[in-house]
Q: What sequence folds into this?
């Protein structure tokens, strides 16, 4: 009883032990942040000057100038084409690479090389990869398609592999017990468990490539990015604003399209169901306005 009482008294005296190692790590992190800010010349004076310059810059951007809408539409169309083709190519390549990288289905001699490919594809920003392809295949949309396809492999194949590694192997073993081939095991034991997640990954990758396709053009890989960069160089800021607004509209259209794709493939809606829901929503909104 004496020992138990001593232990109880000591725990009541100090119920929360101080972790000095954790505190030292936080202090070291805070000190490094201060040091890094000093090295980067990040001061309140520069921030104040930046806000002043930003106000002047935004003042020159408005109102936006859509006079050269033909050039604008051409650049947006090329960015859309780059994003769609790069997403299709990247996803087609990501499926077998992600399958080979899954350690619960494939042996180590297949999974580790596949993971090395994924790591290599994820190691560089799409702009850096676009520069490499511009040097390899020349200026134009082809360099952008190849660069974003590489980026798609780095993202989608990694998520595909992780999704496959999280499946239940009971369904896989049940299909194998029937004597099915390897492709049948994948089609009936693996794909039904990950199909919904794959659709989500694919739609997000398309949305990501839409954004990146507007950026790789800055280095000559096609798309609206080249037009945007040229407008900045000419100090044509009202046209820059028009381009930025158009990019936002393009990304919003891609988001709406991704929502419809998820509704069709994941929720099981048809196009008729989607339009009926929109009509009911519009009718309900009109009725609500009339009631008000």
A:
């Amino acid at each position: 009883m004496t020992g138990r009482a001593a232990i109880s008294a000591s725990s009541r005296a100090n119920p929360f032990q101080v972790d000095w190692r954790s505190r030292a790590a936080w202090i070291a992190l805070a000190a490094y942040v201060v040091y890094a800010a000093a090295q980067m010349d990040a001061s309140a004076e520069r921030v104040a000057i930046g806000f002043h310059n930003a106000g002047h810059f935004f003042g020159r951007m408005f109102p936006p100038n859509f006079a050269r809408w033909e050039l604008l539409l051409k650049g947006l169309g090329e960015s859309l084409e780059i994003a769609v083709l790069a997403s299709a190519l990247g996803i087609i390549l990501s499926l077998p690479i992600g399958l080979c990288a899954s350690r619960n289905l494939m042996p180590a001699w297949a999974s580790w090389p596949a993971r090395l490919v994924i790591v290599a594809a994820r190691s560089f920003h799409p702009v850096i990869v676009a520069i490499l392809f511009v040097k390899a295949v020349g200026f134009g949309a082809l360099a952008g398609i190849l660069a974003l396809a590489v980026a798609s492999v780095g993202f989608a194949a990694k998520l595909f592999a992780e999704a496959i590694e999280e499946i239940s192997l009971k369904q896989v073993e049940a299909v194998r017990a029937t004597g099915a081939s390897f492709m049948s095991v994948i089609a009936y034991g693996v794909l039904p468990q990950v199909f919904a997640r794959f659709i989500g990954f694919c739609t997000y990758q398309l949305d990501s490539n839409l954004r990146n396709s507007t950026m790789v053009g800055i280095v000559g890989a096609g798309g609206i990015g080249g037009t945007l960069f040229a407008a900045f160089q000419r100090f044509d800021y009202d046209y820059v604003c028009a381009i930025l607004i158009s990019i936002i509209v393009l990304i919003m259209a891609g988001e709406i399209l991704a929502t419809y794709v998820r509704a069709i493939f994941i929720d099981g809606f048809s196009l008729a169901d989607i339009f009926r829901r929109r009509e009911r929503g519009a009718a309900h909104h009109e009725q609500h306005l009339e009631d008000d």
